[in-house]
Amino acid sequence: MYDVQNRIIRNLSALEEHFIPSRLLHREGQLEAIRDDLQPLINRRDMRDVFLYGRPGTGKTCMARYVVEELKKHASVKSCYVNCWHNSSRFRVLYSILERMGEVLAIHRKGIPTDELLDILRSRLKAGHCIVILDEVDKLEEEGILYDLTEMERIGLILIANNPEVFFDIDARIRSRLMAMDNIEFPSYTAIELADILKDRAELGLLPNAIEKRQIEAIAEMAGGDARIAIDIMRISAEDAESRDLDRIGDNLLAKALPRIKEKDLEKAVMALNEHQRVLLGIVKARQTAKASDLYEEYGKKVSEAGIKAANGRTLRKYMEVLVGMKMIGASGEGRWREYSING
């Protein structure tokens, strides 16, 4: 039954980023592959670890959560989702996993050693298998957590990142443990595919006639293959129309939504950077362009002046590639000839 006070929105949660729909369109191949990898868990055997990669907004996270929830209807297995952007240290990843396994009271003590968390996790795993989804895995500050998890029995990993080469520069011991993973690509959606996805979300989240087919198609074109942006445009436009007591979403509201989304995304991304990434970004902004060698030299001076312990070269390269992946900066060249610049 509809909310009589609403003219536009039927169910706002259906228009939000973390909503898991009852079906996932245009990802049949990826769905089947992940199901096959997780299938052994139904018979209480180890699953095959999985790596999902592709540009933002291609359905990686939604797919991982969808398949795991479907599996749990048929298998006795626990699951934990950890966003490594917000939980980047070895301690925070372990804490998050145990928290989602119901160990909050047991581990909520300041200064608990990480090795003790590992022991608690091993103990919990004696009861059965657990699937750990590590989203934004390229944001990990301490990659050793991947070694910790891969050496444990009864843990299955679903790793998610934008960059397919995220493990290229990782410690050789960890890389060898991840070689058997199933690597599954998520290409960008076409405008036609995005329109199909938006139509589904509109039917779930909006009241009849709140949005027109041509507007859905226009949103799909605006989003550039990114389903998250497309859904956000529809949600923000719907909220604006609702707040103005309109009967339909106007074209002018759609036009205003995209710049707002991009501005908000940039603000959130900058706030989430660590102190080293902020220093590096500040140097590139000040110089406009900077060769890698000059950049790292100036970085060393700035962190020394600020009393911050400098990160090593491999970590700095990783930080820079994160900034490139977030489109905060551009990059050209390779190795010692790598050069960074401010986009636009």
Protein described:
- It is a single chain.
- Strands 2-3-4-1-5 form a five-stranded parallel β-sheet, with helices on both faces.
- With 344 residues, the chain is of the alpha/beta class.
- It is built from 14 helices and eight strands.
- The relative contact order is 0.12.
Please outline the helices and strands:
Elements: H1 28-38, E1 50-53, H2 60-71, E2 78-83, H3 90-100, H4 104-107, H5 114-125, E3 130-135, H6 144-150, E4 155-161, H7 172-178, E5 182-185, H8 191-205, H9 213-222, H10 227-243, H11 251-272, H12 275-287, E6 289-291, H13 292-306, H14 313-325, E7 329-332, E8 339-342
Helix pairs in contact: 1-2, 3-5, 6-7, 8-9, 8-10, 9-10, 10-11, 12-13, 12-14
Output the keywords.
single chain, 344 residues, alpha/beta, Rossmann fold, Helicase, Ruva Protein, domain 3, Arc Repressor Mutant, subunit A, 3 domains, five-stranded parallel sheet, 8 strands, 11% strand
A few lines on this structure:
The chain has 344 residues and is of the alpha/beta class.
